[in-house]
Structures are given as C-alpha cells and as structure tokens.
Specification:
247 residues, 3-stranded antiparallel sheet, 9 helices
Length: 247
C-alpha cells in the first residue's frame, strides 16, 4: 500500500517510478482530503508514467508538454498551451485517451461552430483551423510515440480554413497621404516609415538597436524580434537579414 494518512488528517501518496535515465526515484504527493482522492491520483500517475493510454486526456497533455515544450520557441509554446487549456482541455480533459472517438471530436467541432461572441460573431475560419490542428497534434503525438491506434481528430476531418482572407495593402499614394498627416509626430512617423519602406514586422521594429543601422551602406540588420510573453518583454533571435528601403 502506498497511500497513507498524515498527522493533520489528510492523505498522501508515496510511490516509486523510473526517471528518464532508468533510475528508481521516490515520488510523494500530499494534501488529499480523502483516501479515495489519493488512490485516484496514484492510479493516474502510474498510468502516466507507464504511457498507458487508459490515462485521462489531461494527464496525457502533461506528457505532451514534457515532450514538446523544450523543442519549441517560448512564444510558440505559450500560444499552443493557451489554446489547448482554454478550448480543448475543458472538453476532452476528463476523457480516457483510448476511449476518445471521432464522434467526440465531431461534437466538439460542432460546439465551436455554434459559438457566437457577445456581438453575434462566430470564430474565424483560421482560428477554427488552428484549434483543430492543435487537437490533432496531440493525438498524432500519441499515435507516434505512445502507440495510440488511430488519430480520432484526423478521422473526424478538419474545420476552418488555413489561409486568412486576402489582406489589403496601402498603395504608395495612400501611404504618402497618411505619412503627411503623421509628420508632426516624429517618433510615430519614423516608425511607420521603417515599417512601410523596409517591409519589417512590428516585433522586428521594436527590437531594433542603434547597432542595427548601417547608415553608410544604407542597410538595416534584422536579427531579432520583440514580443511580450506573460506580460514581460523579451527578444528572440532570428536568422540575420539585411533590409534596404524600397523606393
């Protein structure tokens, strides 16, 4: 037996498992109000450690996070995690991985398609496509590395579209009219000049330093991007590019 009652009246689990190096480690989890809660946590933990697909979807997500988080850029993972936690885990979290069927995915998709915000607008087609892709990625991971027999999301079929609607761009004359209005705001004016004539992204603009400007050769080095993650600003390195204004 590995479930015990603590001195303060709560229950705890003391169990052992192998780490990634094959070494036996002890795991202790405290604070369960009842013996049944402690036993349920132990069962789920052992299923997760063994890669047994009787585990709940929410427990498999923890494995997926361990496997994938270090392989992705921080902002990419944060976006993925936000989508999964807000739109996927609430529906599939308490379901056993091996019991989720294509019909369950269809029901989830239909709920997304019926959604309307306070202004009566549905989710965009590209957002729906992204939601489905994130779910499918999790099941693909289970198929590839944990021997799940099939991907129910792939069997159900996708929703939404990959490409957004055609974007509208300013013509040169339209931009010149806009820039004339902005000239009395120097900082904003130069920012828009950089964005328009050099074709850089906003994050790339915000990450620029004086060292990136080569005035002699009229070149601009783009090798990083500024983004805010969980309220904190950070720079991400990218492949070096050199930009010259397009006149």
């Amino acid at each position: 037996m590995s479930v015990y009652k603590d001195k303060n009246g709560t229950w705890y689990v003391m169990t052992r498992c192998d780490d990634w190096q094959g070494q036996r480690k002890q795991k202790c989890k405290r604070g369960f109000k009842t013996k049944r809660e402690a036993q349920d946590w132990e069962r789920r933990f052992l299923l997760q450690q063994g890669g047994d697909l009787d585990m709940l979807f929410k427990d498999f997500y923890k494995l997926y996070e361990q496997d994938m988080k270090a392989r992705l850029k921080q902002n990419t993972w944060e976006h993925k995690a936000c989508v999964i936690k807000s739109k996927i885990l609430p529906y599939f979290g308490e379901k056993s991985m091996k019991d989720i069927q294509a019909r369950d995915v269809l029901t989830w998709q239909n709920e997304l398609l019926r959604h309307r915000d306070k202004n009566g607008k549905p989710y965009s087609e590209t957002y729906l496509k992204n939601l489905h892709n994130q779910l499918s990625c999790i099941f693909n991971h289970a198929v590839r590395y944990y021997d799940l027999s099939t991907n129910p999301a792939a069997k159900a079929g996708s929703i939404g579209v990959k490409n957004a609607k055609e974007m509208n761009f300013w013509t040169k004359d339209e931009y010149m009219q806009f820039s004339e209005v902005m000239m009395d705001k120097p900082i904003s004016f130069y920012a828009f000049e950089m964005l328009y004539w050099c074709g850089i992204r906003l994050g790339e603009l915000l990450a620029l330093t004086t060292a990136d400007f080569d005035f002699k050769n009229r070149k601009l080095r783009i090798n990083k991007s500024y983004q805010r993650i969980k309220g904190a600003g950070c720079h991400h390195r990218a492949e070096d590019q050199e930009k010259q204004p397009h006149h």
